[in-house]
Amino acid sequence: MRKDRLKYRNCGKIISIVILLSFLKPCPMSAQQQTEQPPSLNENETRYYSDLEIELLIDEISEAALEAIEQAAGEAARAAVLAILEREAAALRESQYWRMEAEINLQAIQAAKQAGRKNTLLAVLIGVFGGLAVGVGGTILMRN
User: Taking CA 50 as the corner, what is the angle to CA 44 and CA 53, rounded to the nearest 5 degrees?
Assistant: First the structure.
């Protein structure tokens, strides 16, 4: 949001500079060459603009301002899309991280289950053989 405000301020500055420069230039701001030579003025003479010239100047300024506004709006939209894409990429990276963590945890759980089964089997075998040894040893001792 702060970046957008800065861009709008820059756009406003550019528009105001374009408007001020358009008043300083006596020639029209179009790509067409002038067909007639502008009259040369002395220091004492003042040129008066006709209503048509003023309207043309206003139209050119409005056109330049609209182009600048459209360009600024395009840049703002581009910046918004880039921000959305950056957030989406960060969310994807985070989801991949948690997915890998879950897979690692599942593998650890499976390894623990297998180790538990092995330990249970060993305990049963030790118990059975130990019981047999104690039973057989006890029987042998009692007969003697």
Answer: 110
Separation of alpha carbons 58 and 64, rounded Å: 10
Query: Per-residue pLDDT tens for 54-74?
Result: 888 899 999 999 999 999 999
What residue ranges of the chain have pLDDT lower than 50?
none
pTM assigned to the model: 0.41
CA 44 to chain centre: 59
CB 68 within 8 A of CB 15: yes
Looking at residue 52, its pLDDT comes to 86
Smallest Cα–Cα separation from 49: which of 38, 35, 60? 38
pLDDT of residue 126: 93
- The kind and range of the H/E element at 122 are helix 51-143
- What is the C-alpha separation between 65 and 15, in angstroms, rounded? 6
Q: Which of 75, 54, 66 is nearest to 18 (CA)?
A: 66
For residue 76, give the nearest of 16, 17, 89, 84 by alpha carbon.
84
- Tell me how far apart the alpha carbons of residues 114 and 96 are, in angstroms, rounded to a whole number: 27
